[in-house]
Amino acid sequence: MEFKDRVAIVTGAGQGIGRAYALALAGAGATVVATARSYGAPEDGELRRGTLAEVVHADAGLPGRIIGQTCDVLDEADVSRLAEFTIANFGRIDVLVNNAAIYPHYPALDIPREEWELNMNTNVRGPYFTIRAVAPHMMRLKGGSIINLTSLAALPTQLGAASHDGLLAYCVSKAAVNRLTTYFAAELSPHGIAVNALSPGGVLTDTWAKHDPKAYAEAERSGKGKRPEPEVMGPALLHLAKQSASGITGQILHTDQYGKTWPAGAA
Fold it and tell me: CA-to-CA distance for 58 and 54, rounded, in angstroms?
């Protein structure tokens, strides 16, 4: 149990990639505080997948445990309460996974102002709030790992905007997350804290299916998309979660390259 006695926070853990990360960490022995905006009460006595309630119960049989907490990363006070709850109940925070994000689709010249602001506030300001709330506790421990979820959409591509049609706001927000990552990597390095960004790649989530069913179906058919399961998504995340400033930090990494181009020395 590599993460026994370690405490992790995973935002946006109610479904998809966040669910997989929470279960992977609990599977490695960590105590995981998993968050979502709502808890999701059982319907007709049945737990519905895609809710935080289901994720909390999915830890049965795992060496670690998952504790569910509602938290809206748009709300600074909510994020502060999350950090305070974790410290009050478990005394430490070793890992922060900033997964909560939205994925809006609009024509590049027709993004409503309120949607632009919501995207930036959720995808950029949200991770900033959580880092600001959690970092002092990691500094007290003289170590920790912060992992910000990013996307290949943040990077310039040969095909330009056509590669990410309708995702201008998302692309810009994830580019900002990359810079947030490298800045905080330098800022927190003297305190032993690693800060990295991880791109999950093409993951067959319900959100992708809802927003772009054609691309989702093609990824599923071609095998270019992967299921958001702990054994698929977990290894790269767990490797970063055990880092400190003396290891991997300040890097923008891609899940599909784990074990290939990173970590150093990989085949």
Answer: 6
Helix (H) / strand (E) element for 127: namely helix 126-141
Paired tokens of 196: 């990295």
Of the listed 21, 170, 216, 258, which one is catalytic?
A: 170
Q: Which of 103, 128, 145, 151 is catalytic?
A: 151
- Domains of the chain, first to last: 7-202+230-257 (3.40.50.720)
The reply to whether 216 belongs to the active site is: no
Among 103, 173, 174, 258, which one carries the catalytic annotation? 174
Tell me, yes or no, if 174 is annotated catalytic.
yes
Average pLDDT over residues 109-129: 97
Q: Which residue has the tokens 């290891």?
A: 247
To the question of pTM greater than 0.90 for the whole model, the response is yes
Q: Which band of pLDDT confidence, cut at 50, 70 and 90, is reported for residue 163?
A: low
Q: What is the band of 238 on the pLDDT scale with cuts at 50, 70, 90?
A: very high
Do the Cβ atoms of 241 and 25 come closer than 8 Å? yes
Catalytic site residue 258?
no
